[in-house]
């Protein structure tokens, strides 16, 4: 009867009235053969379980080791200990699973994040990762709630696809053909028509193009799923497998798109603040401890919670790409040659440029619009100037690009012309072009990188620490 247990979070929020309760969890520490700090993953706050001296036999006490799993039934009583309202006076203790403390890789002390990345299979059992992944869960839930409340349809776009939505060619190939001796065409190239899918396929880099099919029927859809990019970048912001949320809206222009993205980001942050106050407080403290290691001048002005509060209460800055380049060209950083990469109209801004804009210049999230068409995807709507497209990227302090989006090119002639210029074969995207053939409408959408959002909310510096099983170059053990 496992469902008779109470979760420790719920128990800690109740009043101690000598009620009988059963809890189950893992031992964090066991002191003086008397006090067990028990954790069940519902909160970072451990339940203190008190064993009356002499009541339990020695053999059982020996088996209460760090990370052993227990079932404890007892009486909930007020606690005299500091910082805890109640504790559980044990009547029965049952060992569900033993743990050899000598071999258990985690000690009851603070481990470095690097160390924990190597122990990724156990790191959920630490306070830091407990907090991060409960917040990640809340954000995911808030995302569905936000779009559901607005009447968007959740569309499941394919993972295996033949399309390269971003045209960037960073795809993982998927094939059922044998590697050692695949069927070949006369010219020696692999014959993908013999494949299970009848053609060359890859893991999706974005669900957007299929999302547009949904939006031009349902009006408003969103996707929320795994996305794959075979880019060989080892940075604190890139994963080979990440999750993306892609809303797509018919009857929507660039401004509507920006308004929705801003409202959405503010909503999900506020949701986490309202539902994960304990975990955010834990991470706030953690960051403050980290900041103390830095020289005064480099410490951030706001703590994690103040930062989140600020972002939910203030409008994002909105500037054009051309204005952004002008700001960079006039910046002290540029004049003192502090940028590693070149700054001029037409560049794809590097993270140092984006971070200058948000962290030094505006000190808030910034939406940059109307990028040069050369550095953006084929589907973005062309502006009247002939040089720019109706794109928008949202840049966040500490992260850089967190959202990429645009109004889409709904005019068939302009779209096919651009595809030709970019050598994208119209035959392969016939199904996509049908949206423009049969009742085309102005429409727009964006993609939020979920892990970058989780990084922003938790304040974690490395993207590998906000996804359960990070996939980065040479890293896919389990
Ligand atoms: O800017 P991106 O490439 O845009 C698209 O894929 C569009 N189809 C979105 C749309 O309009 N529906 O990616 C969108 C976001 C980025 O802003 C970034 O936050 C995240 O996805 N992202 C990554 N996150 C982690 N690791 C990577 N390798 C990422 N690449 C993009
Ligand atoms: Mg982008």
CATH topology of the largest domain: BirA Bifunctional Protein, domain 2
User: What CATH first level of the largest domain would be assigned?
Assistant: Alpha Beta
Sheet having the most strands:
8 strands, mixed
Shape-level CATH architecture of the largest domain = 2-Layer Sandwich
Could you estimate the helical fraction of the residues in percent?
25-40%
SSE arrangement:
Elements: H1 8-12, E1 20-31, E2 35-39, E3 47-50, H2 58-62, E4 69-78, E5 86-97, H3 113-118, H4 127-149, E6 153-154, E7 160-161, E8 173-174, E9 201-203, H5 208-218, E10 220-228, E11 241-250, H6 254-275, H7 277-292, H8 304-313, E12 317-320, H9 321-329, H10 332-335, H11 351-362, E13 366-372, E14 388-396, E15 400-407, H12 412-421, H13 430-437, E16 443-449, H14 450-458
Parallel strand pairs: 3-5, 6-10, 12-13
Antiparallel strand pairs: 1-2, 1-4, 2-3, 4-5, 7-9, 8-9, 10-11, 11-16, 13-14, 14-15, 15-16
Helix pairs in contact: 4-6, 4-7, 4-14, 6-8
Can you describe what's shown?
The protein is α+β, with helices and mostly antiparallel strands and 478 residues long. The chain folds into three domains: 2-104, OB fold (Dihydrolipoamide Acetyltransferase, E2P); 125-165 and 205-465, Bira Bifunctional Protein, Domain 2 (BirA Bifunctional Protein, domain 2, 2-Layer Sandwich), CATH 3.30.930; 171-200, no CATH class. Helices cover 31% and strands 22% of the residues. The chain has 14 helices and 16 strands. The chain has helices at 8-12, 58-62, 113-118, 127-149, 208-218, 254-275, 277-292, 304-313, 321-329, 332-335, 351-362, 412-421, 430-437, 450-458; strands spanning 20-31, 35-39, 47-50, 69-78, 86-97, 153-154, 160-161, 173-174, 201-203, 220-228, 241-250, 317-320, 366-372, 388-396, 400-407, 443-449. The strands form three sheets. The chain has an eight-stranded mixed sheet, with helices on both faces. A five-stranded mixed barrel has the order 1-2-3-5-4. Strands 7-9-8 form a three-stranded antiparallel sheet, with no helix packed on it. A hairpin with a 3-residue loop joins β14 (388-396) and β15 (400-407). α4 packs across α7, α4 crosses α14 and α6 packs antiparallel against α8 (304-313). The protein is globular, with a radius of gyration of 27 Å. It starts with 7 loop residues before the first helix and ends in a 20-residue tail after the last helix. The mean pLDDT is 95. 4-amino-1,4-dioxobutan-2-aminium adenosine-5'-monophosphate is lined by residues 165-166, 206, 208, 229, 231, 238-239, 242, 244, 246, 401-406, 445-447, 449, 451-452.
């Amino acid at each position: 009867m496992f469902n008779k247990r109470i979760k420790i979070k719920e128990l800690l929020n109740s009043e101690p009235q000598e009620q009988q309760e059963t809890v189950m969890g893992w031992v964090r520490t066991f002191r003086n053969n008397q006090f067990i700090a028990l954790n069940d993953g519902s909160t970072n706050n451990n339940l203190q379980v008190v064993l009356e001296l002499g009541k339990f036999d020695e053999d059982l006490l020996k088996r209460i080791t760090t990370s052993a799993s227990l079932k404890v039934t007892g009486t909930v009583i007020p606690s005299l200990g500091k910082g805890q309202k109640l504790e559980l006076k044990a009547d029965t203790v049952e060992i569900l699973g033993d743990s050899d403390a000598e071999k258990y890789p985690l000690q009851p002390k603070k481990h470095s994040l690097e160390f924990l990345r190597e122990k990724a299979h156990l790191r959920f059992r630490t306070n830091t990762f407990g907090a991060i992944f409960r917040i990640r869960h809340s954000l995911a839930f808030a995302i569905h709630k936000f779009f559901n409340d607005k009447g968007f349809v959740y569309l499941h776009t394919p993972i295996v696809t033949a399309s390269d939505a971003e045209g960037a060619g960073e795809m993982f190939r998927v094939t059922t053909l044998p590697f050692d001796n695949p069927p070949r065409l006369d010219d020696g190239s692999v014959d993908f028509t013999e494949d299970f899918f009848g053609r060359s396929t890859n893991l999706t880099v974005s669900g957007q193009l299929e999302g547009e099919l949904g939006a031009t029927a349902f009006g408003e859809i969103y996707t929320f799923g795994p996305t794959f990019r075979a880019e060989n970048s080892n940075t604190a912001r890139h994963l080979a497998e990440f999750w993306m949320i892609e809303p797509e809206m018919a009857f929507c222009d660039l401004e509507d798109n920006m308004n929705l993205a801003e409202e959405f980001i503010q909503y999900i942050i506020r949701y986490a603040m309202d539902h994960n106050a304990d975990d955010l407080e834990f991470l706030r403290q953690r960051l403050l401890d980290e900041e103390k290691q830095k020289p005064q001048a480099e410490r951030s002005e706001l703590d994690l919670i103040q930062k989140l509060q600020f972002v939910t209460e203030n409008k994002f800055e909105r500037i054009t790409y051309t204005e952004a380049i002008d700001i960079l060209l006039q910046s002290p950083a540029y004049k003192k040659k502090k940028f590693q990469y070149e700054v001029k109209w037409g560049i794809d801004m590097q993270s140092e440029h984006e971070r200058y804009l948000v962290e030094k210049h505006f000190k808030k999230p910034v939406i940059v619009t109307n990028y040069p068409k050369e550095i953006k995807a084929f589907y973005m709507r062309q502006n009247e100037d002939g040089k720019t497209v109706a794109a928008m990227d949202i840049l966040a302090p500490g992260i850089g690009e967190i959202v990429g989006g645009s109004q889409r090119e709904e005019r068939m002639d302009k779209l096919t012309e651009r595809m030709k210029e970019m050598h994208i074969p119209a035959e392969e995207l016939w199904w996509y072009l049908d949206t423009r053939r049969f009742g085309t409408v102005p429409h727009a959408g964006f993609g939020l990188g979920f892990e970058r959002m989780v990084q922003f909310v938790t304040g974690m510096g490395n993207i590998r620490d906000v996804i359960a099983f990070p996939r980065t170059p040479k890293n896919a053990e389990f």
